[in-house]
From TrEMBL:
InterPro entries: AKR, AKR_Detox_Biosynth, NAD(P)_OxRdtase_dom_sf, NADP_OxRdtase_dom. One of its GO terms (molecular function) is oxidoreductase activity. One of its GO terms (cellular component) is cytosol. This is Aryl-alcohol dehydrogenase-like predicted oxidoreductase. Residues 35-308 form the NADP-dependent oxidoreductase domain.
Length: 340
């Protein structure tokens, strides 16, 4: 295990070593963290951010068809396309008056993918994400259409964002049975203020071997402190948000690091499956976020951070945890069975 930063010691960017993970149950190497590009609007600054990210060893750029001109901007500034893992998404409407310009069905998948390829100036995307679950499209249609895109060479890997655990599990089971390309990644919100994924989505992803790209790891700036260029007005925070921000700040002061780095380190500590997805507006902010790679939170710090925000798994998680050690449920050997 990496040593925690001692109080008063700040990690220099030149000392930081980029970390890499395998993407789901594939051999694709992805850097940690991933770089989100939703807020990119200035070509010059976006280019500097991407170059700095690449110089640090980062290789994953995340965008979407719905991110305004973000896809097109990314296509303009990316150099050495083969060195990056580019992911984009489809589902969200491209034309509000066209009923078939949104959703997860084959027609919108094909048209959205071709549009994204043109805007990104590439003939393939590394990861193609379903942006959100579409209740009206059978999951069989979506998975078969995605597999066709993979077989056509336009997509290398697939993922899904913002969907119930049962939908993802059913989709990957169908893919396994029918020899289609399964989802390798799951994209969901995850931060100290929003831990809902711990109930069903994260356990499901761990069991199925999916990578979890965590969006909003800083809770839209609420956990990043004054270093955020879009500083959140403290007067707008709820009592819970203030308590979480205060706990993050206290731990950061003790370790001699920035609040954003503590918040990201907490997200990374939740599971080996989790890959934080950071969105930045400047190179300085990128450098600060990358510094989280060398922050390991002591167990006591993790407990204090989580104690600042009330969270319960709810049913069935809490109920099963209570029943597990009970001889009434699993017999006299309940507490002597070694977990995998």
């Amino acid at each position: 295990m990496r040593a925690s930063l001692r109080p008063g010691r700040r990690r220099r960017l030149c000392d930081m070593t980029m970390k890499y993970r395998l993407f789901g149950q594939t051999g694709l190497r992805v850097s940690e963290p991933l770089l989100g590009t939703m807020t990119f609007d200035d070509p010059a600054e976006a280019s500097r951010i991407v170059d700095a990210y690449a110089d640090a060893g980062g290789n994953v750029l995340d965008t979407a068809s719905a991110y305004g001109d973000g896809e097109e901007l990314l296509g303009e500034i990316v150099r050495r396309r083969d060195r990056f893992v580019i992911g984009t998404k489809y589902t969200l409407s491209r034309d509000a008056v066209d009923p078939n310009a949104s959703g997860n069905h084959r027609k919108t998948l094909v048209s959205s993918l071709d549009r994204s390829l043109r805007r990104l100036r590439t003939d393939y995307v590394d990861v193609y994400w379903v942006h959100i679950w579409d209740r009206h499209t059978p999951v069989e249609e979506t998975m078969r259409a995605l597999d066709d895109a993979v077989r056509a060479g336009k997509v290398l890997y697939t993922g899904i964002s913002d969907a119930p655990a049962w939908v993802v599990a059913r989709a990957n089971t169908l893919a396994q049975w029918r020899d289609w390309t399964p989802f390798a990644g799951l994209q969901v919100p995850c931060n100290l203020l929003n831990r809902d994924v711990e109930r069903e989505l994260l356990p499901m992803a761990e069991a199925l071997g999916l990578s979890v790209t965590a969006w909003a790891p800083l809770a839209a700036g609420k956990l990043s402190g004054s270093s955020s260029p879009r500083r959140v007005d403290p007067a707008t925070l709820t009592d819970t948000e203030r308590a979480a921000a205060r706990a993050v700040r206290e731990v950061a002061d003790e370790l001699g690091v920035r609040p954003a780095q503590v918040a990201l380190a907490w997200t990374r500590a939740k599971s080996r499956a989790v890959l934080p997805l950071v969105g930045v507006s400047s190179v300085d902010q990128l450098h600060e976020n990358l510094g989280a790679l060398d922050v390991t939170l002591p167990d006591d710090a993790v407990r204090r951070l989580e104690a600042a925000v009330d969270f319960r798994l709810g049913f069935p998680g809490d109920f099963i945890a209570e029943c597990e050690p009970s001889p009434f449920v699993f017999g006299d050997t309940a507490t002597r069975v070694e977990p995998r």
